[in-house]
Specification:
homopentamer, 7-stranded mixed beta sheet, 9 helices, 58% helix
Chain lengths: 321, 321, 321, 321, 321
């Protein structure tokens, strides 16, 4: 589905143009065309391939989706794939955007994602000084917008982790903790697969040998790279903390169990003593003088209570009860 | 066993040719010969070695099999070894294909694998525009076909992992989980040994200094490289998740055991109290007035039931029962 | 909030100057201006941007804060962000300082931090020989001062770790240990995120290709780099030790539990024997000759005590009691 | 002890020569001398040092043994140290071979190892075409022979691992498994210390800048390098599997213990109920009407058996018995 | 404290000289001065700084100590810091030596260490051929001497590890093992912090671009580098083994506990059966015919003994007792 097809010159919007006319505009000096597609059909992609002379492998990738985030050069054209993760029903689902950038065109193809990039276009049109840098700046603006969407997801991971951490030493929370930690780990892994490969290649857009189309906006791409590095570092931190938390959680379960075992065994011991004593006076020997004493029973009860009491006191002192 | 031996010119099939005539065709301009062998005998390999002037070490590797996946240059000839993993009786078994590529020939030697590459040849012959690129493109087509076979194996690993994950917090599934996780880990390790070394060397076929025979198809090899990177990343993710899952599984066992211990100990405590009380009234003291009461027995039963009830209620409230 | 704005020439302070005059002083030869801001307002930053011709992305970073530590070049201007961690209420909180350095100016913007850099300025002014090196030396002095603040935090981590280590084999300290280890790990992680990214980039300021403004002070920057490497190495050591300590702690809990289980089970066994024996003599068979013996009861008690004693002795010998 | 001292020309053996004449043969064109020593004395080494003008540090290393595997260049002479691990009494013991290679000589010094390299010499002499490449090819042949000796050790590790894996989920095998896994880990570590440093440096002998003496046999050294990479990869796989197996083993112990605990506790509960009921009817209240019933006893036994039976049935249904 | 101050020419000692004359000797051709200080005062260091024109940052580092091992170039002067670990009261304590090396001088400053370097000087003076290489060779000799001191420490770690390993599967040694493993880990970590940073930088002294002062002794520095690599590899091996041993130790504790639990529970079950049976015959029903049998009691005892015996036999057969 075509969303926009606009021609720009010297940083200013010239006109919404029909797709068929693209070819003509591409030939004008200092002019570039910015096309946005969404869930593009095969026909649309084929048309774009012809208009912009795109490489078949890149178009194939844009068509099939489910690519790794990457930045590839096909001659003068840059091909960028980024993930668009969104929280849906508590799961982290991943749309995708494929961007083709040449000296005088930008083509973005968004797949399986709710949120569009209209805001990016508006912001760019409000800043003609920047837009003058050409297609490279548009690529930056799109990448920046995509990366900005990773931050709230990162924040939600960090918030969840903090919640779990605040309960990690709570008694009886172990099972709930471990489930949430595992779930968090999975989401962190998804976000990492979104960010890490992009970080790896984003360095190619600034410093050293840079694709021609990006050379005028290098500082901006470094900024995107830096944001990705920040997110990636934070994810690594989260993953590391989760690993420790799972270990600590296991320790806490073991400690708790150890305490429960002690407590129950202590009570069992108290009753075992009582039962043993009662059993002794329940024996049927004829010659058991204390059985005939007037206060024998009371003394027996006292003895049992006393033994139990002593044990209770000692266990408590040892911190078991 | 010889499967095919065909000569191509300008991307089009010229003729099936006998092995003896290869030498003549190799001298024709813009012409290349594509030979496919399967479980080749020593004689066949020796013949090929002479026809194409192959290096003895490479031929040795092709003969013995069980190589690490690799890409090696012997002068102008490229020697590629790839694994062909197949699921057989629930085990991941690995065949192998060795490919020799020169400026004007391709020789593939398949060992210990059921699935052939006839489809690759057919597809190549249908796209003469691509095949015009020469032997390099055939190498790409073969590598692409091999790598495409890794995806269903990866998918089966991911499906299995998801199945295990959906049961990882189920009560009593620990043993079954741990066995399946261990088995999954082994299969993931096999696939990794298939993919990782290939990924390592596949980067040599695009960008930077590239073997002459591949230089015209660089973008295609980058695509293969990218697929391998995707698979490798996914395997790393699976391995990481398995490690966490094993840890979590251990935690769950410990938590479950802790709960069972609590529950049983609670019941034991309830019966221990009953036994102790019954033991007390079973003592043989003469002066135990309550024994003579009319409702003594009922009161005793009530006391026992009451004590048991109080304990039961408290344990339940504490979440132990 | 403006803190200072001073012009220097040949390593000596010329005058406190008003912000508006900066432009004039920048044009004088061998002269540089050093401005310090604290929690700068947007207006102040905009003014500085114009005076020193700063890049908008760097200014944006200084405004928003919460950056990763980094060193970036914008043309001839160097932009450095460092964290200023401070212990507040037992938590490690992080302020930030952003420093812009050009051939003839230094601008530091401190955010969310109590401690200032007046001491640095004073020290610099006392050493005109060094200050003669220009803006680069000021950058060194500021970085050195920031890095020096990391050492006491590192020391407190090491002290805490030593305290925990001295108790790690103490009986019953497991829960407390694990909590403290977890807390320590978190603080070490915070410090690591402060140090590691800075270490990564600090190498750019000495050896190899160095920004022009730093080239005269390379040895000094290497010294800062070396300090960062030392801190980073120490943090890695702490983290490694914490990981081992958590594992060891789990082992200790398990060992302790094992000992408690043995001890309690041993006592339980002793009383179970007593109860079983008492139960036997409590049976109501008519023909139980020992019940009528004169010393039957005493013998029974002796038998019970003897059985218990033997068990006690054996358990003690086995090290269980 | 001198084993051989032979001169070769153009790939063919000329003569066994006395050590004293080496000097003369070294001056002949296209001629090289191949000397093999075993457990060399200081005198022998000193003599060789003079004949071949070896560097004192290399000679020292050859004398003392216990070196890390390494490849070092001393001027035009290459110095190679490799380990010769052998299974002796179930332990992996390591001999060593030090090889000096110059343009026209090869000197191998074998220490503390049973197996010699006579086979290598014979093979070389049978292939004069290869031997024509000179001293470099002899180095290759020796390295290839050494590396080939690593494979059976690797195989024995893999076989042992498979044996353990086949029993890892067996009930009651935990202790035996853990001992064998630990032992396997040790042997894998020994082999790794033999292979990994060699792999690290073997890459220097092919591709890029290569020592002159090896330049004609590069493809052969790449083959050795590839073999080492294969072994190293396999060891890494084994180590990784062992780590997982140890973890899994711990899980299995915990699961087994959990099951035993459940089973025993279930039986304990059944008998506790019986004891409690018997205790109640063993109380001495006067007014316990059921005691006087004709079938009271039978009913009591039935009640006890019934309670035990119900519990048994429920525990079995819950999978505890 | 000044230890020595000696001038050398062409590898031979000329004279012990007073510190004040250093300046003069430095100007003579082919002459170098070797000064050794111990726990130098600020005055001594200041004097040396002037005599040899040392960089203030390096002098500061030598004064304060507690540096990371490192090798730094200040112009033509090389500054080397190495740790001197010594066993004191069972703890691994670390002294330090800082070495300044220029074209015609060596200055070593030893701090907080008992063992001196007189032996090094003596050995050097006995080998004028080597000493002719100049200050670089002295640096090598000092580094070699320092690194040689690491070996006995490494040996003691390995011996301790072997001792622990020989007991790791012993029953009841778990607590002692875990304490010793933890202690060993700490000492290994100390040694690693001594060796690893030095290894990292020692590579700069041979191959590639080498400081002028070391260029004539490259092969010697490579030897030191190789020693460091060997030590570092061994430490990594120790650390890896410790990690596994801790894990295995935990498994062993769990296995032992599991066995103890089984054994005790088995005995408990035997007595529980006895108690239950005795309880049944202790019930007070009037109509319990067996109570009146002549051999009822004997039969009861036999039944109890029989039940206990059967259980005992079954538990033993199952390997629990």
């Amino acid at each position: 589905m075509l969303i926009n097809c606009v021609a720009y010159q010297d940083g200013r919007k010239l006109a919404d143009i029909p797709v068929e006319d693209i070819d003509g505009w591409l030939r004008k000096p200092n002019c570039f065309v910015w096309v946005a597609l969404r869930d593009a059909t095969d026909d649309e992609l084929r048309q774009m391939q012809q208009e912009f002379d795109l490489h078949e492998l890149a178009v194939e990738d844009a068509r099939h989706g489910h690519q790794r985030p990457k930045i590839e050069e096909y001659g003068d054209t840059l091909f960028v794939v980024m993930k668009l993760p969104e929280m849906r029903d508590g799961e982290l689902d991943s749309g995708e955007v494929a961007i083709f950038v040449g000296q005088n065109f930008v083509l973005s193809v968004r797949n399986n994602s709710q949120q569009g990039f209209l805001g990016v276009r508006e912001r760019c049109e409000r800043e003609p000084d920047h837009l003058k840098q050409g297609a490279g700046f548009v690529l930056y603006a799109l990448m920046d917008a995509v990366v900005d969407r990773y931050f709230p997801i990162l924040d939600s991971l960090e918030t969840d982790l903090e919640k779990i951490e605040s309960q990690i030493f709570d008694r009886g929370a172990a099972k709930w903790n471990i489930q949430r930690l595992y779930d968090l780990k999975r989401r962190a892994t998804v976000l990492r697969h979104v960010v890490a490969p992009l970080l790896e290649v984003a360095g190619k857009l600034h410093g050293g040998r840079v694709p021609a189309v990006c050379s005028r906006s290098q500082e901006y791409f470094r900024d995107v790279h830096d944001h990705l590095a920040r997110i990636n570092g934070a994810i690594d931190g989260i993953r590391d903390t989760i690993a420790t938390a799972i270990q600590v959680n296991l320790s806490m379960v073991t400690i708790e169990e150890s305490e429960t075992t002690k407590r129950l065994a202590a009570y069992a011991a108290i009753f075992a003593v009582s039962t043993a004593l009662a059993g002794i006076w329940g024996m049927n020997f004829e010659n058991m003088p204390e059985l005939k004493w007037k206060y024998g029973y009371v003394m027996a009860l006292a003895a049992i209570a006393g033994a139990a009491g002593v044990l209770f006191w000692r266990f408590r002192r040892a911190g078991w009860l």
